[in-house]
Amino acid sequence: MAQGRGSAVTVVVALLLVCVLFNARVADSAVYNVGDSSGWSFNTDSWSTGKRFKAGDVLVFKYDATAHDVVAVSAAGYKACAKPASGARVYKSGADRVTLARGTNYFICSVPGHCQSGMKIAATAA
Fold it and tell me: Where is the signal peptide, in residue numbers (predicted)?
């Protein structure tokens, strides 16, 4: 019986260690308000220039949900301001929180003409 109790303690300690490590990773993530005080709006396309993002960082898109949206797109969709592909992740709350994946993450507003007016960003996360 004593050996079983010791094994259970080892498992609990290991699980606690995993939880601590996971929380340290989350606590290390930064939160960015896209467009700073202006929010997600026209001419936001250069907002990410000079910023150093990491995978796990969070982008907060604040905007008028009756006039805009946020759509995760491919590099080609970003460049062409193309209609999002079927199945693209579309955000419509007006206060969307998006966690960055490693690599370049592309976002546009899919309302006609808005992407062409600079409502798009590319954020590269290391």
Answer: 1-29
pTM above 0.90, yes or no: no
Residue 3 lies in a domain: no
| Residue 46 within any structural domain of the chain | yes
Structure tokens belonging to residue 19: 């939880």
CATH number at residue 45: 2.60.40.420
Q: Is residue 95 part of a domain?
A: yes
Instruction: Please give the distance of CA 42 from its chain centroid, rounded to a whole number.
Output: 19
- Dump pLDDT digits (tens) for 90-125: 999 999 999 999 999 999 999 999 999 999 999 999
HSE, CB side, 13 Å, CA atoms: give it for residue 72.
15
